[in-house]
Write a structure and sequence with these properties.
By secondary structure, the protein is an alpha+beta fold. Strands 1-2-4-3 form a four-stranded mixed β-sheet, covered by helices on one side. A four-stranded mixed β-sheet has the order 5-6-10-7. Helix 1 links the parallel strand 3 and strand 4.
Length: 195
């Protein structure tokens, strides 16, 4: 089973290309022009065992908003395409992930119905060159483009870097769990017969 996808998207604000292999080893090549965001995506690939190539040229002279949001759209689209008909996948995944003083939770249902529940009590406006408000915009874009029910919550924490990193890693682990193939599932895991 080849669960890979490459998606390109070009607008007046961003030019993005993302390739993902859901059954990879965690290798990544990330270049968005936003150092901390690159770090988050590298952690996502490593801890989810996804091979990920992502390149973005965006209007960073304005701010990072368009680049991060559009990266979420393209990543979500790539995940959806790589999953194909979703036959055999576990569908649900969750993770409670600690990082020093922080504890983050992520739960996913690859139901085809997009929804985001998000809670993260960041203390400051920025982590590196990434606006902390953009984490929500990114995950919203991923959830809607991928058609996933996505719940992310920082249960507690003090350091914004730790909170952001814990969220991305918890998302990676939950998505890895949800995309796993189980031999007992011969079609799709739904009483409706489709996802």
């Amino acid at each position: 089973m080849n669960r890979t996808a490459t998606v390109e998207r070009a607008t007046k604000e961003t030019n993005i290309k993302i390739s993902i292999d859901l059954d990879g080893t965690g290798k990544s090549e990330i270049a968005t022009g936003i150092g901390f965001f690159d770090h988050m995506l590298e952690g996502f690939a490593k801890h989810g065992f996804f091979d990920l190539k992502a390149a973005c040229t965006g209007d960073l002279e304005v701010d990072a908003h368009h680049s991060i949001e559009d990266m979420g759209i393209v990543l979500g689209t790539a995940i959806k395409e790589a999953l194909g008909d979703k036959k055999g996948i576990v569908r649900y995944g969750s993770c409670m992930l600690p990082m020093d003083e922080t504890l983050a939770m992520c739960a996913i249902d690859l139901s085809g119905r997009p929804y985001l529940v998000y809670e993260a009590p960041f203390k400051g406006e920025m982590v590196g060159a990434m606006d902390t408000q953009m984490a929500k915009e990114f995950f919203y874009a991923v959830s809607y483009a991928a058609g996933m029910n996505l719940h992310i919550r920082v249960m507690y924490g003090e350091n914004d870097h730790h909170m952001m990193e814990a969220m991305f890693k918890a998302f990676a682990k939950a998505l890895d769990a949800a995309t796993r193939v189980d031999a007992r599932i011969t079609q799709v895991l739904s009483t409706k017969g489709s996802l």
